[in-house]
Amino acid sequence: MSARWRALVDALLGRERRLRLRSARCLLACALMAYSVASMGYLVGAGLAAPGPMLALALFGMGGMLGFYAAIRSGLSERWSDPSLTLAQMSFSLVVGALAYMLAGRGRGAVFPIMMVVLMFGLYSLSPRQVRLMSWLALQLFGTAMGVMAWRDPLVYPPEVEFAHFLVIAIFLPAVSILAGQLGLLRDALKRQKAELREALARNEALAQRDELTGLANRRHMAALIEAERARCVRGGGRFCLAVLDIDRFKRINDAHGHPAGDRVLEVFAAEALAAIREADVLARWGGEEFMLMLPDTGLTAARLGLERLRTRVEALRVAHGAAELAFTLSAGLVEVAGGESPVEAIARADRALYEAKQQGRNKVVSG
């Protein structure tokens, strides 16, 4: 699509997706009205309708539809409950159609397909109740038009013929309502399926990024976040710290109290750690009883102070398990990621610092 053509389309429809869809639908309705006006012109040319009233109706019909387009394209229709103005457009078109039926004389049979198109226009966007409302309005308008013209001009609009026409639309319009109901059910089913699919995709995405037990970021997601933070710091000259955290003697808890107790310790630790760290920090379960903490825009001194506070809070924790209360401590290896250093190298340094913390008796924070 050329730039000039794209600019023209943007001018006609707008740039926002919903506005473009509404504007496009309204322009389609305008095109249908223009086709109907051309049909009226044919009736005038064939001598079946008077030119003056038909010209007035054509101007009324096109002017009204262009007014709807202007309201939608300008955003004015956003103030109303139905920004697309579908019901209003259909009601207006049915009024024009009924007036055209009264003016078309012997050519009035050409109006019926236009009425059908107007009703079909709303099948895929209106609710079944709204389609029934439009069908009832069409029946009232055209029934009134037939009755009035059969009374005023029975030679051109014979009452028996108009009654037959009324019977036709009285059968057709309920059929449209039934079809609208079936389409509405299908549309609702598709909406439910789409909602269920979105929920399933969201759950899958969460499972792909989160540890199922603790709800923290998992190792794969954390590795991606660390790489993204490293790239950001390289571009902007910032700095960040990484810490590998390990629950001391976690195997003893599992062996002495069972894996459910160990899982509970991990859950409590994760919740306590999340409450202790900053909102900008990211905590992940790295594997087993090991966790990874990333502290963006933080130097080594500030990061160490934060980890010491966390270590103290963990030391004071007690996890209820049956009649017993489980206590545990935390060891951490902390590093500030140097410029140009890869995440693998930084994590290896943090692992070495964690090992040193264990060698020093555990329940310590060691900087690497």
Which short descriptors sum up this protein?
alpha+beta; Alpha-Beta Plaits; two-stranded antiparallel ribbon; 2 domains; 368 residues; five-stranded mixed beta sheet; 12 helices
What is the topological layout?
Layout: H1 3-13, H2 17-45, H3 51-73, H4 86-103, H5 111-121, H6 128-152, H7 159-209, H8 219-236, E1 240-247, H9 250-257, H10 259-276, E2 282-287, E3 290-296, H11 300-315, E4 319-321, E5 324-326, E6 330-336, H12 343-359, E7 365-367
Parallel strand pairs: 6-7
Antiparallel strand pairs: 1-3, 1-6, 2-3, 4-5
What does this structure look like?
The structure is a single chain. This protein has 368 residues and is an alpha+beta fold. The chain is built from twelve helices and seven strands. The protein has helices spanning 3-13, 17-45, 51-73, 86-103, 111-121, 128-152, 159-209, 219-236, 250-257, 259-276, 300-315, 343-359; strands at 240-247, 282-287, 290-296, 319-321, 324-326, 330-336, 365-367. The protein is 67% helix and 10% strand. The model has no long low-confidence stretch (mean pLDDT 87). It has a five-stranded mixed β-sheet, with helices on both faces. It has two domains: 3-202, no CATH class; 219-367, Reverse transcriptase/Diguanylate cyclase domain (Alpha-Beta Plaits).
